[in-house]
Amino acid sequence: MNALxxxxxxVGYEWRRALAKKWLFxxxxxxxxxxxxxxxxxxxxxxxxxxxxxxxxxxGLEQTKPxxxxxxxxxxxxxxxxxxxxxxxxxxxxxxxxxxxxxxxLSKPITKLEYMTGKYLGxxxxxxxxxxLTTILGVILAIIFFSPxxxxxxxxxxxxxxxxxxxxxxxxxxxxxxxxxxxxLSYFSxxxxxxxxxxxxxxxxxxxxxxxxxxxxxxxxxxxNWGASNFPSFVMGKLVDVPSNPFISPAQxxxxxxLAGVFVAVYTVIFIVVxxxxxxRSDVTKKTA
Length: 289
Prior knowledge:
Layout: H1 3-19, H2 22-47, H3 55-64, H4 68-74, H5 80-89, H6 94-99, H7 101-106, H8 112-145, H9 155-165, H10 167-180, H11 183-211, H12 214-220, H13 224-239, H14 254-281
Helix pairs in contact: 1-8, 2-5, 2-8, 4-8, 5-8, 5-10, 5-11, 8-9, 8-10, 9-13, 10-11, 10-14, 11-12, 13-14
């Protein structure tokens, strides 16, 4: 058995380990339920517009119909997908230490790097599957409820952008799982960073709106959630020519798109490197108390 085969075995093991947990299904079901709820709300607005709705809003609703797939595909992004990937990777390494199975796995003819690569790729493949599920469902519902959709040829690009952007919190949770080697602590640490990033970003945006100082928005871009949340929207904005309306964010400049992509890559590499150093420099895996 060569290195690729050994890594593939660990990837399959990671799938079985993750799918045995009900919380993963619960989070996926919640993300899908949010997608369906968005469709129900928009369908009601399309078929029963409230009396007195401003003409600009009505026009915006009509312009949104051919692009509802974008609304649905991006709906779980930035919050639900981040939580899902944290739950996928947060216990990936730590549970093996807690259960003592890391000793068994690493006693096999497999190197630490092969073991870690298989665990990480297993989480990445789970992320890709969940992203594909929510993306395909969003497109199907959009076509069923809101007539033929436009610019669907860019769907693969947006899907890849979603997977890429979520590498930030997948790698963050994976790093905490290896460094802390406590599952609960890993989950709380990753979720804490995620929530703190959202709160700080919101505060900086609010201060910017009051003061008009661009510095606050520039600082918020350095937070982990900025690239992870906005990169798919920026990609979509550059690829798809969507009419300006209140329901779909306008396209961003090339600089923001590039900056978001760079931040995703930088954070991902840093987190993976830290996890790798921790694993490689650990002499013996021990079951945690």
